[in-house]
Write a structure and sequence with these properties.
Elements lengths: L18 E2 L15 H11 L1 H4 L7 H6 L21 E3 L8 E8 L4 E10 L2 E10 L3 E5 L2 E7 L5 E10 L4 E11 L6 E3 L19 H4 L2
Antiparallel strand pairs: 1-5, 2-3, 3-4, 4-5, 6-7, 7-8, 8-9, 9-10
Length: about 210
Amino acid sequence: PGLTPASSPAYDIGEVEHAPVKGVAVPGGDIRRADPVAAVRAEIAAHPDDYAGAGARYHETSVRMADCGADGAGDEPGGCPVLRPYYRDLTGDGRPEMTLGFRLLPDRLTAVRVYTVEKDRLVRVMSYEDAVSAVELAGRTVIVRSPSEVAGYEYRLQWTWDADQRAMLLTSDEMLRTDDGGRHAKRPSASPSPSVPRSAAPSASPSASAR
């Protein structure tokens, strides 16, 4: 109790994601008409160190983008890494946002993204990747479930729209028991970043679990 409270964070974990996506059209300002595959391709183009060249960590994802149609829906192993998008009003403005997942290969991780529209521009307002077992859209929140290295537990992370930051913020980060339906413990806060993969275990399709 005698220690001086910290006044600044020890790590920059990128809590706020608000990034316009260049080169992706939003016809009529309707996000349902934006091309989800183009959104992923734009992200790949913006991060060549991660995707370009045989030595890049997610080069396989970049290669498999050639198998994508207009809407992605890459549920088949070895095919398009972009999963089917889901639409729900997460900001409360009466218009839907796009929740989208895509595979990060060969690590078998899943990237989860949320996009909104501002002045007819596509804007990414949430970015997270992990070994994902499920993604749920509940009200105006996005819930990501991931396997834990502790038997009988899973991680559950929840993002909620924040109008001041104009982004989905990580508002809950918990470790939950999977076999008793209620008891839970807070995930240790010493982790430098919630986006650091905890496991390379195969992940299930986030869009298949969304509701």
